[in-house]
Specification:
Elements lengths: L2 H7 L5 H24 L13 H14 L24 H8 L2 H27 L6 H13 L1 H9 L3 H20 L7 H17 L16 H22 L1 H15 L20 H9 L7 H20 L7 H5 L1
């Protein structure tokens, strides 16, 4: 049964689910159109298709090929607006940089979106969903209109591609679980591949490393992740040299803010992470001043709650899926 037919069959049993699902799909599919309408009005801030990050990628590729440093500090000692990823990522951008600033980022964005589409479709089918051709087309447009992916496309960022890689890591993990009973080693190969893909998807942006939690549930996946990480690091040092990696460590140190004053949680930028932004604004609208420490306390309690739930469910037969998620 297709997803649409299955959803329609639930209209009497779970009407709220049907309404919310349809509204969500419509919102994501139509968001690029709303974005195009709102951009010239100036009513809200709507980013242009500037492909800002691609300019950084291509410029860093040129610096690498010319033998220049790939991590360059600004006058203030920081790295704002410069290349912030590990050195081994640069070869990925090389072929796109050859296409120029217009075709390069567009092709990179289209490829990233296509891979994410294939990955999400595969995950849906792994859970028993059967997508018809129209549903697959709707899924493609919904993924493009999903704001984080849409923002990624506008800025030519890598998060969509990394998410696609993690989708394939999940699919490899699922295949490994299904083939565990086979005697030809297919299950082991799939599990190892899942670990390799997890390393590739989680080491470009280090806060993605939490995606590796599922590795602890399977020694083969863990071995694949560690082995590929060692090979990746060794190859990166061999190609780019030790000095480039020291520069990357400086970038991480700067990004962490070691040795500098820490912004209060209420001042964290919404573009990155500000989980209690709406709550904080609502409290302020009531004229109530609450110390920033409450946000830290709420964050800690939330983390502890997630840990407690994970520990409580760690032995459940179906715990592998939420652990990966």
């Amino acid at each position: 049964m297709s997803v649409a037919r299955r959803l329609w069959s639930l209209r009497h049993e779970r009407p709220l689910l049907v309404v919310v699902t349809v509204a969500t799909v419509l919102a994501t599919v139509l968001w690029p159109l709303a974005d195009a309408v709102l951009r010239p009005t100036g009513l809200i801030h709507v980013s242009d298709y500037g492909f800002n990050d691609f300019g950084v990628y291509s410029g860093t590729v040129d610096a690498w090929l010319d033998g220049e440093p790939i991590y360059v500090q600004n006058e203030d000692g920081g790295y704002h607006g410069s290349f912030l990823y590990p050195p081994f990522v640069l070869p990925l951008f090389y072929p796109f940089s050859l296409l120029g600033f217009e075709a390069g980022p567009v092709l990179f964005g289209v490829l990233s979106l296509f891979l994410l589409w294939v990955g999400v479709e595969g995950i849906a089918e792994s859970f028993g969903a059967s997508l018809s051709v129209p549903e697959r087309i709707v899924l493609l447009f919904a993924l493009f209109g999903f704001h984080p992916a849409f923002w990624d496309f506008k800025w030519a960022q890598v998060s969509t591609l990394l998410t696609a890689i993690l989708c394939f890591a999940f699919l490899a993990s699922e295949r490994g679980e299904r083939l565990n009973a086979s005697e030809d080693g297919a299950g082991t190969r799939s599990a190892v591949l899942s670990g390799v893909l997890t390393t590739l998807g989680a080491t470009v942006k280090l806060f993605y490393l939490t995606a590796g939690a599922h590795l602890l549930r399977d020694g083969r996946r863990f071995a694949g992740a560690v082995a590929s990480g060692v090979v990746l690091l060794a190859g990166s040092v061999l190609v780019f040299g030790v000095e480039a990696h020291r520069g990357y460590l400086d970038v991480l140190t700067w990004g962490k803010g070691w040795g500098t004053s820490q912004l209060p949680p209420a001042g964290w930028q919404t573009a990155y992470f500000r989980p209690f932004f709406l709550v904080d604004q609502f409290v302020e609208s009531l004229g109530i001043t609450v110390p920033n420490v409450w946000i830290i306390g709420a964050t800690v309690l939330g983390i502890l709650a997630v840990i407690a739930l994970a520990l409580a469910a760690r032995d459940a037969p179906a715990a592998a899926h939420p652990t990966f998620a």
